[in-house]
């Protein structure tokens, strides 16, 4: 696909992602869907209103009525889509920097569209084969109230409120000025938690930190956990479909360790879990320990969703799936990533044992993640060729499902192009930090040299 990547389409707002482009995407989606009614939601980014207006105009021009949901987290918008049985356009760039924005498309079942569905819309877009409604049949736009409250109420019905409330937990929350700032504090308080916040005001400038919940952006949350004697720290990305945690000592918990701890609580012998090609050995070990299968996909939520659906159609049970970035699926709840729901499920475990004890078995591996920016496809292709050369010169087992993953038995390194930004991402994991650093550095140096020569 040329337009839609692994998590929709994104770019710098008003440069790469213009209102004109979003209008055309909405016209293509509305034409392809042929639905009478479609919803539009957005996160807190400054350009969200402008782009949501463009999307509404595009839909109305093809004769589709529009429900404007306002600022709602992506999982909140997905809940509305499923509840109402209507497709939804979400204006969000998730974890990307403030200047970015994007478009994510959700089906009538509340699930992100499959690659096949996205390709159909993309064909309509590229061919500009848009429907055009006559003047007296254009769509009507209405503002919908109460969407966030309905989402919170639904969350409360699907988690163990009693266990969490009885534990009397204190939670430090960093919604990062994003859409989760309008729902997660209230949700956690209704679970019976004492909630303290940092970066808790919705603000598209993201003054306190960038939207991506990575350690270098979350120092304030660690300090807040320690200052308030909190039992758990929780951080979201811009659209709150992810959750990252800090333990009771204010120590960052790697997302792979969270996924492993939750998987250990969910998986049984004969189950299957699904993750991406950059999966941590932690999840591999959990699956092996309980006798569950592990399926790998290319990176990106759409790929994981498609594989879960295929497995469930074949009668296999998939109680949990996800990636180490805090995006976790609990398919029995909904086939979507939901940062608030993930936080509640982890709180159910923290109510019984401290967070540090829950993840202690999964502290054995060190992880490194590095990025290399490129300015042209020539630079990108040169770096990927260099990654291929690294693989061919190595004795490691090679996996090319998504990029180049070199498995060394005790460690691995992966280089792959980002689906949403002009970056080649490098991931490495080993049992000690120096080994992981070395693998990442070797790959980084090879790619940087290739980029310089491109």
List the keywords:
phosphoprotein, metal ion binding, 21 strands, Alpha-D-Glucose-1,6-Bisphosphate, Chain A, domain 3, 454 residues, isomerase, 4 domains, alpha/beta, A-D-PHexomutase_a/b/a-I/II/III, 6-stranded mixed beta sheet
Report on this model:
With 454 residues, this protein is α/β, with parallel strands linked by helices. The chain folds into 4 domains: 9-145, Alpha-D-Glucose-1,6-Bisphosphate, Chain A, domain 3; 150-253, Alpha-D-Glucose-1,6-Bisphosphate, Chain A, domain 3 (3-Layer(aba) Sandwich), CATH 3.40.120; 255-338 and 354-362, Alpha-D-Glucose-1,6-Bisphosphate, Chain A, domain 3 (3-Layer(aba) Sandwich); 366-453, TATA-Binding Protein (2-Layer Sandwich), CATH 3.30.310. The protein is built from 15 helices and 21 strands. It has helices at 19-33, 48-61, 74-84, 115-127, 147-157, 161-167, 184-190, 219-228, 255-266, 281-290, 301-313, 339-350, 355-359, 377-392, 433-453, and strands at 9-12, 37-42, 65-71, 88-91, 100-106, 141-143, 170-174, 194-197, 232-235, 244-246, 252-253, 272-276, 293-297, 321-322, 328-330, 334-337, 366-373, 397-399, 404-407, 411-417, 423-430. Strands 1-5-4-2-3-6 form a 6-stranded mixed beta sheet, sandwiched between helices. Helix 10 (281-290) links the parallel strand 12 (272-276) and strand 13 (293-297). Keywords: Isomerase, Magnesium, Metal-binding, Phosphoprotein. This is Phosphoglucosamine mutase. Residues 387-445 form the Alpha-D-phosphohexomutase C-terminal domain.
């Amino acid at each position: 696909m040329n337009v839609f990547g692994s998590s929709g389409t994104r770019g710098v707002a008003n440069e790469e992602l213009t209102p004109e482009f979003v209008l055309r995407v909405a016209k293509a989606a509305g034409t392809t869907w042929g639905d009478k009614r479609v919803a539009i939601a957005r996160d807190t980014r400054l350009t969200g209103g402008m782009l949501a207006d463009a999307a509404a105009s595009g839909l109305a021009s093809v004769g589709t009525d529009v429900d404007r949901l306002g600022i709602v987290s992506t999982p909140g918008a997905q809940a509305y889509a499923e509840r109402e049985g209507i497709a939804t356009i979400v204006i969000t760039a998730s974890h990307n920097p403030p200047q970015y924005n994007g478009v994510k498309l959700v089906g009538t079942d509340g699930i992100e569209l499959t690659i096949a569905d996205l390709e159909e819309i993309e064909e309509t877009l590229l061919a500009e084969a848009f429907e055009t409604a006559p003047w007296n049949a254009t769509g009507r736009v209405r503002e919908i109230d109460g969407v966030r409250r309905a989402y919170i109420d639904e969350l409360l019905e699907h988690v163990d409120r009693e266990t969490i409330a009885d534990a009397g937990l204190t939670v430090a929350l960093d919604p990062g000025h994003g859409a989760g700032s309008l729902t997660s504090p209230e949700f956690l308080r209704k679970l019976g938690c004492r909630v303290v916040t940092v970066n808790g005001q919705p603000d598209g400038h993201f003054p306190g930190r960038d939207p991506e919940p990575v350690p270098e952006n979350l120092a304030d949350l660690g300090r807040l956990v320690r200052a308030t004697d909190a039992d758990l720290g929780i951080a979201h990305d811009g659209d709150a479909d992810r959750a990252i945690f800090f333990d009771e000592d204010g120590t960052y918990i790697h997302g792979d360790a969270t996924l492993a701890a939750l998987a250990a609580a969910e998986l049984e012998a004969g189950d299957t879990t699904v993750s991406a090609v950059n999966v941590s050995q932690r999840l591999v070990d959990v699956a092996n320990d309980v006798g569950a299968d592990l399926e790998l996909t290319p990176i990106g939520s759409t790929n994981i969703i498609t594989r879960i659906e295929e497995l469930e159609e074949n009668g296999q049970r998939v109680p949990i799936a996800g990636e180490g970035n805090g995006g976790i699926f609990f398919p029995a709840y909904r086939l979507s990533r939901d940062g608030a729901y993930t936080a509640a499920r982890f709180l159910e475990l923290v109510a019984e044992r401290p967070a540090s004890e829950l993840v202690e078995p999964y502290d054995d591996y060190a992880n490194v993640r590095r990025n290399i920016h490129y300015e042209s496809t020539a630079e990108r292709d040169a770096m990927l060729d260099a990654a291929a050369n690294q693989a061919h010169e190595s004795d490691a087992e090679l996996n090319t499902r998504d990029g180049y993953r070199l498995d060394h038995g005790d460690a691995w390194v992966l280089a792959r192009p980002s689906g949403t930004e002009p970056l080649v991402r490098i991931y490495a994991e080993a049992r000690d930090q120096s080994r992981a650093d070395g693998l990442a550095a070797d790959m980084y140096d090879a790619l940087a040299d290739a980029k310089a020569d491109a």
